[in-house]
Amino acid sequence: MTSLNDFRNMYWSIIEKNKILKKELQIKDNMLERLHDTIEDLNKEIYNLKINKIDNTETIELQKKLDIYEKKVLYGTIKTIIAHKGFGYISGDNYGDVYFHVSDFCKDELDHRYVNMVVEFSITITNRGYRAVNVKI
């Protein structure tokens, strides 16, 4: 037979569990509310980006300069080689055609067999524009 003390203990145990569950529910509700606010803020930012489109060429130029500043290694394909003059052009996704000289190429000589090969390179800014340096196959 269950005593009165046992019922009291069970009652208080249920009350404590109820408090814990309410607190957990409140925490989850707060998390959901913050998540909803975050999603709403992101949607506003996306909308603002769509409405206030920045000139795409300006953005690309800024990204190029940032990449150069951060000394990122880039990848591209050798588009053209003018072997008798000692230079060529690398076609990159974000940079268009980038000039490179034989002195920046990993091989001692330029040959047409390197056309369409994927290369790794860095970019530097010269007074004539962008130049690929440290060109490696």
Structure description:
The protein is of the alpha+beta class and 137 residues long. It folds into 2 domains: 1-53; 59-136, Nucleic acid-binding proteins (OB fold (Dihydrolipoamide Acetyltransferase, E2P), Beta Barrel). Helices cover 45% and strands 28% of the residues. The chain contains 2 helices and 5 strands, in the order ααβββββ. The chain has helices at residues 4-51, 56-69; strands at 74-82, 87-92, 96-101, 118-126, 129-136. Strands 3-2-1-4-5 form a 5-stranded antiparallel beta sheet, with no helix packed on it. The longest helix has 48 residues, at 4-51. The radius of gyration is 32 Å and the shape is rod-shaped.
Question: Can you give me a brief rundown of this structure?
Answer:
With 137 residues, the chain is α+β, with helices and mostly antiparallel strands. It has helices spanning 4-51, 56-69, and strands at residues 74-82, 87-92, 96-101, 118-126, 129-136.
Q: What are its keywords?
A:
2 domains; 45% helix; 137 residues; alpha+beta; rod-shaped; five-stranded antiparallel sheet; single chain
Report the mean per-residue pLDDT as an integer. 78
CATH class of the largest domain: Mainly Beta
Biggest sheet descriptor: 5 strands, antiparallel
Number of strands: 5
**Derived structural class:** alpha+beta
CATH-defined fold name of the largest domain:
OB fold (Dihydrolipoamide Acetyltransferase, E2P)
Count of folded domains? 2
Helix and strand succession? HHEEEEE
Tell me the strand percentage band.
Answer: 25-35%
Walk across the major sheet and give the strand order: 3-2-1-4-5
In CATH, what is the homologous superfamily of the largest domain? Nucleic acid-binding proteins
Low-confidence stretches: none
User: Radius of gyration over alpha carbons?
Assistant: 32 Å
